[in-house]
Write a structure and sequence with these properties.
This protein has 140 residues and is of the alpha/beta class. It has one domain: 3-Layer(aba) Sandwich (Rossmann fold). It is built from 5 helices and 6 strands; from the N terminus they run βαββαβαβαβα. The radius of gyration is 15 Å and the shape is globular. This is RCK N-terminal domain-containing protein.
Length: 140
């Protein structure tokens, strides 16, 4: 499976390294060239030596998505630090490029729920944290 991950922060780079180790083809797109270093931490060899692909560019630009391989992606993960960016690029991947599986990280739990109702596969770490705290405090 070819996976395109946008955002090489803590979440995106961890998912990318896990997917690559599981035998998937992985491309990462990030606007910060230094974020590439996260993909090498704790690993032997560089990201590219291990078979990964890295593209520097802004995901809101179609050319950057194309260079990163969006047309060939079987899965697309939007994991930047901005909800608005993640939601827009997830919809572009799903609607314009018909990527089969699109997963979008949305910090705002209300927005995540609304976009999930519209058909996007959302993950909200904030909603998950709220659930965990409620269970821990016996509020559920």
């Amino acid at each position: 499976m070819f996976v395109l991950i946008v955002g090489a922060g803590r979440v995106g780079s961890a998912v990318a390294k896990t997917a690559l180790a599981a035998g998937h083809q992985v491309s990462v797109l990030d606007e910060d060239p230094l974020s590439h270093e996260r993909l090498d931490v704790g690993e032997e060899g560089t990201w590219e030596d291990r078979g990964g692909r890295f593209t520097v560019g802004t995901a809101l630009e179609i050319d950057a998505l194309l260079e990163a391989g969006v047309e060939d992606a079987d899965a697309f993960i939007a994991a930047t630090d901005g909800d608005n960016t993640n939601l827009v690029i997830a919809q572009i991947a799903a609607r314009r490029f018909q990527v089969e599986r699109v997963i979008v990280r949305v910090m705002d739990p209300l927005r995540a729920a609304w976009y999930a109702e519209q058909g996007l596969e959302t993950i909200s770490p904030t909603a998950h944290a709220i659930d965990m705290f409620e269970k821990a405090l016996g509020l559920d």
